[in-house]
Amino acid sequence: MLVLIVGLILFLGVHSMRIFANDWRNRQIARFGQGPYKGIYSVVSLAGFLVLLWGFSLARREPIVIWTPPAALRHANSLFMLVAFVFFVAAYVPNNYFKARFHHPMILSVKIWALGHLLANGTLDDIVLFGAFLAWGVFSLIASKRRDRALGTVYARATPLGTAIAVVLGVAAFLIFALYLHVRWIGVDPLA
Hints:
This protein is mainly alpha-helical. It folds into 2 domains: 1-62; 65-192, no CATH class. 79% of the residues lie in helices and 0% in strands. The protein is built from 9 helices and no strands. The protein has helices at residues 2-14, 17-20, 22-32, 34-61, 71-90, 97-102, 105-120, 124-151, 160-185. The longest helix has 28 residues, at 34-61. It is globular and about 45 Å long.
């Protein structure tokens, strides 16, 4: 469990700079330049992610069951994930409803993913992993909305084409992941 926690601290810590240390972050970018800062950020993020994966795989070997979720919640997680994938893709597709309405679909995607998995899993390692991501998502969304207000950020209007592309690509990504990749990468069939 310790390795998982270290990975979470590294990965989410780096991704929390704009939440808790935005002024420091901006000073480092001014000091080193955008490219070098992004390079260091990427290396620490990747290291944290790899440690997080390693820690999660170690913790799963000896799971500590806190509760056993009903089958309905495990199946409901598929619906959560469908929505999460659409929101995830919407972060990258211009002029879609999700970005125009919610402004930060990537963060919402993480929150939906984490909440769905918290409801569908009941081991301590699951609670630590998905609970940490859900907490990060809550704080990140608050900080992002506060930053938008301070900067007067205006988001592009949605178009039917942008929204359709986000939905179609999100559903396709969900199907590929649910039907093929999740069982190969995670070892669990999410549709079983």
